[in-house]
């Protein structure tokens, strides 16, 4: 209970900062119950004047709250279904920049993680060249069998795990409260969102996992002539340290430098979009943070990605869903697009396929017969999320992350080539995957996999029958004798109930006191 009070106080502070910076202006009162609307109206009384416009207020509030909330804001940028497309695009610009910690602390972390003195590990080791909420980067040189090599060394910030753990506990408490107060919000799965953020942060804070993601993506793309990733130095990598090959390249948003290097912007735009689709549809594993700061082009014109802290993964079901959806929009086969949603179980069966196809047509038709540079993927996503809500389609976080990444990727590609036609550029990748997996060869492979699965099930039938018999015997015993509690158990339950009531009363008094402090501050 004391922990709950601590979480409550932290969330009240966060609420105060959000209200003060004007971030609550983004909340649509029409979707809230009457009591919540009154609370929102009262909270906006303390809004600071000239707090800025739109989602810039949310960015300012999250920056003021600290690194955990900055990371949360960046994560919300992948959830336009929650914050809206405009806010998601604004949050994409939220800068995860923190003051660097001293080189000496980085050296201590490296020596503790790798168990050797810094001079034994690196020929040179620079001052920090970039710093964020979780880690910072140094430039270094190492000796290899081929000679000397320049590398980038990423070092986890000291004390970051404890800080994130505290803030995530408070976010979990806030998500539970949000689900109770606004039942309609359960469709958005706020608890699942926080847990997804927690897993994402856990991956980012274990640099071995980032190295593994980098290695997996490199293996998937080893035959792609126009895309590459850095190589991790596994002997110089641990939980708190990641060493990778240094990337010499031009950032994709530096158009002047790209032109001066004689690189083809139109071809590079095609590479950006098709590489992402190949990773998502062909491999089911994609870079989910493909903003211009994480993308470079090298001297050979190859696309190079860095920073693999946020990755997306799609199963075969989701990949088939995505491929058929894209192909359906390209071919204007809205009936098939609707059927795919029902076949995947994303739309409840009590809805009409014909009605859903009609709604999909309302999304698809406006994007055809228009110039490529007039098609807004942001507007398309907004309409898709509205349709999702109308037809009770449960939020699929992996698909939302994919859709948001597609918007970012298209923005990067459009910056290189303003006349990019997403649909024409996407079709070869989608069609190739469909022919490979849904054609004759794919059908044979699926049949073989099905037979292998059935063989495994048949082999496990005897053990399954034994376990079923034991469970049935236990059920019969409970049915015959009932469930009994001894006197000691009953007494313990009574004590726990009384203790909970006392803590509940105390919590109410503390909440009242905290609210009074906030109101009269």
Automatic annotation (TrEMBL):
The chain crosses the membrane at residues 503-520. It comes from the Bacteria. Gene3D superfamilies: Transferase(Phosphotransferase) domain 1. Pathway: Cofactor biosynthesis; ubiquinone biosynthesis [regulation]. Residues 123-440 form the Protein kinase domain. GO terms for biological process: ubiquinone biosynthetic process. Pfam families: ABC1. InterPro entries: ABC1_dom, Kinase-like_dom_sf, Prot_kinase_dom, UbiB, UbiB_bact, UbiB_kinase. PROSITE patterns: PROTEIN_KINASE_DOM. Keywords: ATP-binding, Cell inner membrane, Cell membrane, Kinase, Membrane, Nucleotide-binding, Transferase, Transmembrane, Transmembrane helix, Ubiquinone biosynthesis. Signal peptide: none annotated. GO terms for molecular function: ATP binding; protein kinase activity. Belongs to the protein kinase superfamily. ADCK protein kinase family. This is 2-polyprenylphenol 6-hydroxylase. It comes from Microvirga alba.
């Amino acid at each position: 209970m004391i922990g709950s009070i601590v979480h409550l106080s932290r969330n009240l502070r966060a609420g105060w900062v959000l209200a003060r910076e004007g971030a609550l202006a983004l909340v649509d009162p029409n979707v809230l119950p009457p009591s919540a609307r009154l609370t929102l109206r009262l909270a906006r009384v303390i809004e600071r004047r000239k707090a800025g416009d739109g989602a810039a207020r949310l960015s300012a509030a999250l920056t003021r709250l600290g690194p955990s909330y900055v990371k949360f804001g960046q994560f919300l940028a992948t959830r336009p279904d929650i914050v809206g497309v405009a806010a998601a695009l604004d949050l994409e610009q939220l800068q995860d920049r923190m003051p660097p910690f001293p080189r000496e602390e980085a050296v201590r972390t490296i020596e503790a993680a790798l168990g050797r003195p810094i001079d034994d590990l690196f020929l040179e080791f620079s001052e920090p060249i970039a710093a964020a909420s979780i880690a910072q980067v140094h430039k270094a040189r190492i000796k290899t069998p081929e000679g000397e090599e320049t590398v980038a060394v990423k070092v986890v910030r000291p004390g970051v795990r404890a800080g994130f753990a505290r803030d995530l506990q408070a976010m979990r408490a806030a998500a539970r409260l949000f689900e109770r107060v606004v039942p309609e919000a359960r469709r958005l799965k706020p608890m699942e969102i926080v847990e997804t953020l927690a897993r994402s942060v856990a991956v980012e804070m274990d640099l071995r996992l980032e190295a593994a993601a980098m290695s997996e993506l490199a293996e998937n793309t080893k035959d792609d002539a126009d895309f590459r990733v850095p190589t991790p130095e596994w002997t110089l990598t641990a939980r708190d340290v990641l060493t990778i090959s240094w990337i010499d390249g031009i950032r994709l948003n530096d158009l002047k430098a790209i032109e001066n290097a004689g690189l083809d912007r139109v071809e590079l735009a095609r590479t950006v979009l098709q590489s992402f689709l190949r990773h998502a549809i062909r491999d089911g594993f994609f870079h989910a943070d493909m903003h211009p700061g994480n993308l470079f082009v090298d001297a050979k014109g190859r696309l190079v990605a860095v920073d693999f802290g946020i990755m997306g993964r799609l199963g075969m079901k989701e990949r088939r869903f995505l491929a058929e959806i894209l192909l359906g929009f390209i071919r204007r086969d809205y009936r098939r697009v609707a059927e795919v949603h029902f076949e995947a179980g994303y739309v409840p069966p009590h809805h009409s396929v014909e009605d859903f196809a009609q709604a999909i047509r309302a999304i698809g038709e406006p994007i055809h017969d228009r110039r490529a540079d007039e098609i807004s993927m942001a507007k398309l996503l907004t309409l898709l999320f509205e349709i999702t809500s109308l037809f009770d389609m449960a939020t699929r976080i992996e698909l939302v992350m994919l859709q948001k990444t597609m918007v970012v990727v298209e923005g990067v590609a459009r910056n290189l080539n303003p006349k990019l036609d997403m649909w024409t550029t996407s079709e070869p990748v989608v069609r190739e995957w469909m022919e490979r997996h849904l054609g004759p060869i794919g059908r044979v492979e699926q049949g073989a996999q099905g037979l292998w699965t059935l063989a495994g099930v048949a082999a496990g039938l005897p053990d399954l029958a034994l376990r079923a018999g034991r469970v049935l015997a236990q059920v019969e015993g409970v049915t015959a004798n009932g469930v009994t509690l001894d006197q000691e158990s009953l007494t313990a339950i009574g004590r726990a109930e009384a203790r909970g009531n006392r803590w509940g009363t105390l919590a109410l008094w503390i909440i009242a006191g905290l609210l009074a402090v906030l109101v009269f501050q």
